[in-house]
Amino acid sequence: MKLSDIADNAGSRKKRMRVGRGIGSGKGKTAGRGGKGQTARSGVRIKGFEGGQMPLHRRLPKRGFNNIFRVEYAEINLDRIQDAINSKLIDAKDTLNAESLVKAGVIRRAKAGVRLLGRGELKAKLTIEVHGASKTAIAAVEKAGGTVKILAPAKDEGEAA
Fold this sequence. Notes:
Elements: H1 56-59, E1 74-77, H2 78-86, E2 95-96, H3 98-104, E3 114-117, E4 127-130, E5 132-133, H4 135-143, E6 147-150
Parallel strand pairs: 1-3, 2-4, 3-5, 4-6
């Protein structure tokens, strides 16, 4: 076999139809665009136009809003922390904070801080520093003999001091 023998399968590539080249071609005169008007022209077509009827996207009501003051926390449950301790990613003697969780690979990024949630059971005695925690999470950590310190929310750079 030679490089010059290599070819596509028959019919795998279709030649483009040259339009507007006389009635004998089958695509003459209007070149497959139908009659006259807006849709026959190039570059203009109203998307979502329903013939003068109020379009669907304008008939439906607007819903919801985006809160510009929303604070996005990295959430972590107690069972994830216990799994990390069991797999020796986290040392139970150290203080657990956002940096140590990211370094251990338990969470990907700290966002505006870490929020501790109460799913699962904690067996190790831990000192945890987080930006938020649920009541059940705090109760579970204290039941295991540890402490939870709630840090002040991290200030944005755009905020005036």
